[in-house]
Amino acid sequence: MVDSRTVGITRYQAFCALLGAIGSFNFGWNIGSVNIPGDVLQNCVTGHKYYGPFPSCIDVSSGTVWGVIVGCYALGALMGAVISNYFIDRKGYKFVLTWFALCNVAGALLLSLTTSVTQFLIGRLVVGVAAGAANNALSTYVSDITTPRGRNVLGGGVQLACNLGIMLDNAFALGLAPPPRWRILLSLTGVFGLVNFSLFPFASESPKWLVSKGYLDEARESLARFRKGADIEAEFEEI
């Protein structure tokens, strides 16, 4: 049986890395989500037309305020990265990548149903928390679950997903910027968050994290899933 340290990318590794890439994609999506609809949201270039109880824009009267709204995403990401360290240490990477995805759902509801500057700002902050937590956990998680042969490909794929998120968000925004369609654009981050929340429970925890907490049987089982068909004993002893 081949040594697990020499195997390439297994299907289960790819599946778990793909789930991680959805979080990275969502990070990029939210970076670009206010770019093209910015004139509508900030300056009400379409005028004050109403669709039911929701206004067609939030009428930001100051460029400084708009800058704060945009920048709140980065502030939320910083908060998410710091807060998630506590949960990673105590609950693991899988917990963070599963449950913090719900922040995207909460943020999407705030953003897509927004009726005020304050609500929009809080929504940006909340999706930022989700992004910061995901990116804080993703790099180490993907590194832990992959072998040296697969690490560059799968790790690079996660980073590529972020750029893909920015690109596709701007492409979608070309058709979804006019009111009230910008609300659909901002709600999609919640869809991606729900996908992460629904599927990440099927991923295994990092074997290295499990070993660090003394869960040796669980760590062995997790490593065996990631290295299916290979002899994991030497790699397990290294961990």
TrEMBL record:
<protein>
    <submittedName>
        <fullName>Bifunctional purine biosynthesis protein PurH</fullName>
    </submittedName>
</protein>
